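Reopening this one. Same input as before:
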Amino acid sequence: MGCFLVTGLPGDLQETTVEADNCRVNRNFLDKRAGFTLVELLIVIVILAVLAAIAIPRFMSAGIRSKEASLKANLKLTRNAIQSFNADCGSYPATLDDLAATSAPATGLTSAASSRAISSSDWHGPYLSTVPSDPVSGSGLKYSATAPAVGTVGSATPGNDSGGVPYTSY
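Same output, byte for byte:
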């Protein structure tokens, strides 16, 4: 009497009669496609490690790059608000909080840093809903109320950004 060996893929089973002593079948024949070899697994692990070594540093700096982009956007928004305030009132705000005030501030600053009264009819604010902060340092933006830099706003964060540009030059 012969032994039966079922071979093939599911749905495509074939029956093969194997004539052998005591129905023994060479075990290596059945085990050849049973899994992956150690070498195949090591190659896959090495490939994944190389991809991770390339990708992880790019994602690690994504947080700081987003803060730097937010800082640039906050500075641009604040500078535009200062220009609008100056165009309406004929003077610069005495502080950044004057940009978010709900009523006209009593005084502003001239380009020579002297105080100047602001007419409530000239003021069309608030120019900002809230005064933005510096997301890189977590502190407020640096505003100059002294001549010759009256009305300039920048970052007070020391050091350079991820591209090597000083934060103070933003």
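So the earlier flakiness isn't reproducible anymore. For the record, Residues 62-89 form the longest helix (28 residues).
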